Amino acid sequence: LFSDKIVVLKSIDLEKMMSKMMPSIVVAFLAGAFLIPRVTGDDTESQIADLTARLEAVEGGKLDTQDADTFWLLFGTCMVFFMQAGFAMLEVGQVQVKNTKNILIKNLFDAAIAALMWWATGYALAFGADTFDKTGGNGLYGGSGFFYEGIGQGDDASPLTNTPFAKTYGKASWVFQWAFAGTTATIVSGAIAERATFGAYAAYSTLLVGYIYPAVVHMGWSADGKFSPWRSNRLFGGCGMIDFAGSGVVHFTGGVAAIICAYMVGPRKGRFGPNAYHLEQQSAIFQSLGVLILWVGWYGFNGASTLAIGGYGGVAAHVFMTTTIAAATACVINVVICYFTSHHVIDPAAANNGILAGLVGVTAGCSTSNLWGAFFTGLIASPVYLCASATLVYFEIDDVVDAFPVHGACGFWGVIAAGLFATEFYYSGSYYSDRADDCAGAFYGGDGGSLGSGICFLFTNVAWTGSNIFIMMALLKYVYPYGIRVSDEVETIGMDDSKHGGHVDVPLPKGATFEDTQASHKPVDSVEEA
Known about the structure:
Radius of gyration: 29 Å
Strand content: under 5%
Number of helices: 20
Order of helices and strands: HHHHHHHHHHHHHHHHHHHH
Largest sheet: none
Oligomer: single chain
Distance between the termini: 67 Å
Mean pLDDT: 88
C-alpha cells in the first residue's frame, strides 16, 4: 500500500530534513514530558488503565467465529423459511380461484407440521447417534435426540442436545434443518392441489417430515450416513455422494413423493379424457412473484449450506454465483425451447419453470462446480424439466404445479451433474482436499466414486421414499373413512366454499359473477392440448 510513498522518501535528503525538524521534535518531547502530565494531574496510570479497559471493551464487542457461524445459519434459516411465501404465491397462482384458501392453509400447515415433527422425531432420526462410522452397521437413521432431549449420561448422552454447545448455539442447526424439512413437505402439496382431502394431506406431511425425509437426510448428510461424504472412513465408493445443498436429499425426495401422491389421488375433473376442458389458473402475477421470492430464498438455501461463514466466505460467494448462472441459463433456454414448440409464444410460465429447474439442478453441485459447470447444469436442466413434464401428460398424471418435473427430475439431474462437473479445486474447498483428486467429477479427472455414490443414493431414495409413500397412500385410500380424494360435488364447487368458510373476494368485471371465474368447460381436442 505504501510502496509509492517509499519511492518518494528515497528521493529526499533525510539527513537535511531531520536537522531542520530536530528543534520541533525537542519542543514536542518537552511538552509531552512536562506540560501534559501537569494538565492532566499526572494521572498516567489511571489513563493507561482506562485505555486498557476501552481496548478490552472493543475486543469483547467483536463477533467471534462461533457467533458469526451461528448468525450465518440463522440468517440462512430466515432466507429458506421465506421460500414458503414463494411456494404459497406460486401455488396460489396455479390453482383455480375457488381453491385459494385451501392451498394457502396447506402451505401454512406445512411449516407448522414440519416444526412439530422435526422437534419430535425428525432431527433425531436425521442427525442422531449411529454406529456406521465405527462398525459399518446401520447408516440409515439416527437414534438419539428425540424432542431435542439428551438420552442417558456420559457416553450415552446425545451430542445433539446434551452438550453446552448444543443447548445454545447448536439450535441454529435445528432451525436451519427444519426450514429444509418444511420445503420438502411443501413440494408435495402443490402436486395434489384441488382434489386431495385435508386428512390425507396432513397424514403424508406428518409421515414425510417425521420419518421418511429424516432417513434420507441421515444417509446423505449425517457424518454416520451410508452415502455421506462427511467422514474419513467407510466412504461409499471411496468418496460418498456430492449433494452440497439438497438436489437429491430435499428436492428429489419431495419429487418422488409428489408423483406417487398425484398418481394415487388421480387427475382433476376435466384434466384428461374425451371430456377434458381448460382449467383456469388464477394469476400469472402470483406465479412470477412466487418464483422471484424462491430465487431470493435459494441464496440462503444454497449459500448457508456451508453451515459456517468463518473461513468459508469465499465458498459462499462462489455458491451465490453458480446458483445465479444456472438459474439464468435455464430460464433463457426454457423460454427459447417453448417458443419454438408452442406456436411462438413467449410464456412467463416457461421462464418461471426454467428458473426453478436451474435452481434445483445446481443445488447439489453449487459449491463444487466451476462457473461453466453451473452453466451446463442449467442448460441441461431445462430439457430435463420439459421432457419430464411431457411424460406426465402422456401418462395422464395430473401434477398441478409440475412438482415432479421441477424437483424430482431436475433433482435427479442435479446429483448426476455434481458427480460430473465437480472440480478438484472447488471440491477441496467444500469437502476434503486429501481426496479431491479422486473424488472430483468424472469430467475433471475423478475416479467416478462421487458419481457412482450419487447414483446409488438416488435409487435407494426411490425405493425408500416411494415404497413408504405408496403404502401410506394405499392405506388412506382403502382404510381411512374419508379417503384421499374429495367428492365430485366438493371438487366442483371448490374447496373454499365447502371446507374453508367461503371463497376469497376477487375483483370481477362489471356484470360478471364468481362462477364466471371458474373453469370454462371448453373442450380440448387432444391430450397434448390438455
